[in-house]
Write a structure and sequence with these properties.
10 strands, rod-shaped, 2 domains, BirA Bifunctional Protein, domain 2, eight-stranded mixed sheet, alpha+beta, two-stranded antiparallel sheet, binds 3,4-dihydroxyphenylalanine
Length: about 350
């Protein structure tokens, strides 16, 4: 019997010393497995005399029970310890700042932002959006807009022409968004109320000019469209866009082949301390061209100038973006420098709308 108590002492000692569930399992197999020490003892019962078998068998089985119980108690302790270790190693410090994900790091380009602002403002005034292609015909970019072939006004636009095609037609990159006016008038019946934002191209490059730039065109055609409405629309636009209570605008006589009369519009501003402010000051900044749609243009687009009339304007989007957001140079707009975009760009969910404020 002392042999049994020695074995029990050894096994219980090994169980208590097992430092992991794997080590404990090894102890169990060594004792209770097929070739284990306790199983070995049970296998010797068959060769014993009945009396001896009875008492020895009972003792071995009692030992087996105690070992089994010690094993399961130790297993619970080891499982708890393993869980504690895991919880400690996986602890999250909820006070740490969030790491910026790709979505938060991305920025909306100021041009896209300003396009969204324009759209929000003019949609509120009842305008729809019209679009046209960047590669345009000479007819739509010039002729239908009352720039007759050979007219010197064509030279005012430094046009990128394509090679002539088989029919001798020279396509071009549109020099302004005005051909979208023509496309709209050809496609739709008055009343028309559209804005046409988009890319435009001229062979020009310096601090405030790039070969590709953006314009937004406005066009209203109906029976009674007039200059008073044009002034009101532009004033409402400027107040909303520059986010000021009032603006002063100056309409100067000018010339565009497609409008008569034609005007250029300046907005009053102050440039004190190197910062531009609108709605105050003594300086004037030119921001757009406009006028009443020329009767020839209406005729060229299949409309009767005695039945309908219209007003239109065209504005440089890049220019008003520079003015509003204080960017001194236009060229970095198109250099795709991530540092510039991080500085001047907008957060993706800062969607401009008139209710919460455009740039809020
Ligand atoms: N298309 C002109 C330009 O690019 C801008 C312009 C002026 C558009 C007067 C208009 C307008 O619709 O009425 O210089």
């Amino acid at each position: 019997m002392s042999e049994l108590s020695t074995l029990e002492g050894t096994l219980l000692g090994e169980i208590a010393a097992a430092g992991s569930e794997e080590a404990l399992e090894a102890v169990r197999v060594a004792a209770l497995g097929k070739k284990g020490s306790v199983s070995g003892l049970l296998a010797t019962l068959g060769s014993m005399a009945p009396d001896e078998r009875k008492s020895f068998g009972a003792a071995v089985n009692a030992l087996k029970d105690r070992v089994t119980e010690a094993l399961s108690e130790r297993r619970v302790i080891l499982k708890d310890q393993a869980l504690d270790i895991r919880l400690a190693s996986e602890r999250a410090d909820v006070t740490l700042p969030l790491r910026e994900s790709g979505i938060e790091a991305g920025r909306i380009h100021p041009i896209s932002q300003v396009m969204d602002e324009l759209t929000a403002i003019f949609a509120d005034l009842g305008f729809a959006i019209a679009e046209g292609p960047d590669v345009e015909s000479d007819d739509l970019n010039f002729t239908k807009l009352n720039f007759p072939v050979g007219h010197p006004a064509r030279e005012m636009h430094d046009t990128f022409f394509f090679e002539p095609d088989e029919k001798g037609e020279r396509k071009l990159l549109r020099t302004h968004t005005s051909p979208v006016q023509v496309r709209t008038m050809l496609a739709k019946k008055p009343p028309i109320r559209v804005i046409c934002p988009g890319r435009t191209y001229r062979c020009d490059s310096d601090q405030t000019h790039t070969p590709m730039f953006h314009q937004v065109e406005g066009l209203v055609i109906d029976k009674s469209a007039n200059l008073g409405q044009l002034k009101w629309v532009l004033e409402e636009f400027c107040k909303a866009f520059f986010e000021v209570e009032s603006v002063k605008m100056r309409f100067r006589p000018s010339f565009f082949p497609f409008t008569e009369p034609s005007m250029e519009v300046d907005i009053q501003c102050s440039r004190k301390g190197g910062e531009i402010r609108f709605g105050e000051g003594e300086d004037w900044l030119e921001i757009l061209g406009c006028g009443m749609v020329h009767p020839n243009v209406l005729r060229n687009c299949g409309l009767d100038p005695d039945a309908v009339q219209g007003y239109a304007w065209g504005m440089g989007i890049d220019r008003i973006a520079m003015l509003k957001y204080g960017m001194p140079d236009l060229r970095p707009f198109f250099e795709a420098d991530i540092r510039w975009l991080k500085h001047y760009g907008f957060r993706p969910l800062d969607l401009p709308n008139l209710a919460s404020g455009l740039s809020a």
